[in-house]
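Summarise what follows for lecture notes:
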Amino acid sequence: MECYLIRHAETVLNRKKVLQGWADAPLSDNGIIQAMKLSGVLPPWPIFSSDLKRALHTAELFAAPGQRIQPDARLREIHVGVWQGLSKDRLGQTSLWQQYQRSPSTFRFPAGESLKDLQNRIVGAFYEYQERLDRFIIVSHRLAIKSLLCHLQGWSLDQIHSIDLPNAAVLHIYHEQDNHQLAIEPVFLHD
């Protein structure tokens, strides 16, 4: 098994430090450039993308002509509920935000999902693709990918905030030949 995990490129809401959740925010001009820089860097494997516009647009901008992109709602970002559209600066002052920072594994976004809900969705999709294909690409979102990484590494979701994953980050995941261990390495990271 070999795959690439890609976080969508920068959106206009990323620039404003606003929680997006399931909002369909467009890519910023910088995000379009980030996604286009991935063109020709990645192999022409099947692409599975979150069905949210920012992920699909990222995939469309780097995909080779004729490369298939399959939208999958299981790859969406966490549903942040009533926090969707709120700035991190505003939320950062609240006790609920502090609770999320301290104990992410037990936190549920108000009227939204928990990280465990999110992890179950994306892990299920990942293993389904792995059963069908030897090689594939996933385009998803920050917390979605980070929750998958926690699962693959055997880490608690309480460690999710220790993972750095900027916009348009690319991670290469593969089984090492010698010891059959899963290897995860960054490939192409943007500022």
About this structure: The CA atoms of residues 81 and 111 lie 5 Å apart. The chain has seven helices and six strands. The helical segments are 12-15, 29-37, 53-62, 88-91, 95-102, 115-132, 142-153.
